[in-house]
Amino acid sequence: MGKGDIVIKYLLKFLFPPKCIFCKKLLPTNTEIEVCTECYDKITFYSGELLYTGDYIKIAWIDKVICLCEYSGIIKDAVIRYKFFNKPGYYRTFAKLLSKKVKKMTNSLFFDIIISVPLHSDREKERGYNQSYLISRLVGKEIGIPEASGILERTRNTPKQSLLGKEQRGLNIKGAFKVNNADKVKGKKILIIDDILTTGSTLSECGRVLTEAGAKSVTAAVIASGKKHLGKVY
After folding, report:
1. I want to staple 134 with a disulfide (CB 3.0 to 4.6 A). Which of 91, 119, 182, 206 is the partner?
2. 76 vs 80: CA distance, rounded Å
């Protein structure tokens, strides 16, 4: 970032000071993560080691899962606003918190590329942004992994997973993704980003097509999960 960019960034923060994404409290202009101390203390973060599928959860085609926090309280409310109520700016806070978690749990050299779970083009136009891609882009920048989300495409505009039961979710998402350039996947260790982990059906299907295209490993990192057996919390 050049000197001019730094000045512009400072002026923008001076004119539009950062606010806590949870309670809207004004924060210092040098704030990097837009969460006040009081709200940060209300977040139920998951702690401990990487969450290997098979130890705590089982997601076919996914080697490991990294989960930032429990999908409850102020996190749940903020994620809903982020996805459905036009709050794309929240990505900065979610991405910086998730980056810290990934750095803590792994060596960034472990991954060759980072991608996001894609939205269908119609759904993205309707929403105005892909919430997972915004997070993926900044996480990649924060931990130094090339962002390559374009290699995975959503081929069908499926009904919303949140409206379906567990078995229906698996059937709904089957065959909904494709890899458009297997050469960029073959032999690669991939980190895939999503916002919420529920049944794992979407991540499993993404993992399947990436693995069948030749990926060496697929690790998932998500902001939150409602699963109660992911490990200790603090």
Report:
1. 91
2. 6
DSSP 57: B
Q: Domain count of the chain? A: 2
**Residues 115/192, Cβ–Cβ less than 8 Å:** yes
CATH at residue 59: 3.40.50
Distance, CA of 151 to CA of 206 (rounded, Å): 11
The total number of residues shown for the chain amounts to 234
**28 and 49 share a domain?**
no
* Nearest partner of 97 among 78, 83, 118, judged by Cα: 78
- Helices first, then strands: H and E counts in the chain: 8, 7
**Do 119 and 171 sit in the same domain of this protein?**
yes
pLDDT at position 138 over 70: yes
**Nearest in space to 152 (alpha carbons), one of 92, 88, 212:** 212
Q: Is residue 40 over pLDDT 80? A: yes
Q: Judge whether 232 lies within some domain.
A: no
